[in-house]
């Protein structure tokens, strides 16, 4: 199940600390796996000379980075 930070806060406010822990672990697991995947791609690309990376791929990566930054900004607001 996909949880949000609001789910975590609701569990804590309701006194459901065990369920809150499960929500926290799920949220962190998703975040860690996402960051790990991005890091793998970053490392793999750094091993290739830039001339071997198609221009469309570079543009797509930049668009994904911008989208992730916007999502993070919305999540912290």
Descriptive notes:
With 77 residues, the protein is mainly α. The chain is built from three helices and no strands. It has one domain. The protein has helices at residues 5-13, 17-47, 55-76. Helix 1 (5-13) packs antiparallel against helix 2. The radius of gyration is 17 Å and the shape is elongated. The two termini are 23 Å apart. The mean pLDDT is 82.
Quick structural summary:
Helices cover 81% and strands 0% of the residues. It has 77 residues and is an all-alpha fold. The longest helix is centred in the middle third of the chain and has 31 residues, at 17-47.
Main attributes?
77 residues; mainly alpha; 3 helices; elongated
Number of strands: 0
Major β-sheet, in short? none
Roughly how many Å apart are the termini?
23 Å
* Proportion of residues in extended strands: under 5%
Q: Level of helix content? A: over 70%
Structural domains: how many: 1
Shape: elongated
Unreliable runs: none
Mean pLDDT across residues: 82
Radius of gyration: 17 Å
Class by alpha and beta content = mainly alpha
What order do the SSEs take from the amino end to the carboxyl end, as H and E? HHH
- Count of DSSP helices? 3
Q: Secondary structure elements and their pairing?
A:
Layout: H1 5-13, H2 17-47, H3 55-76
Helix pairs in contact: 1-2
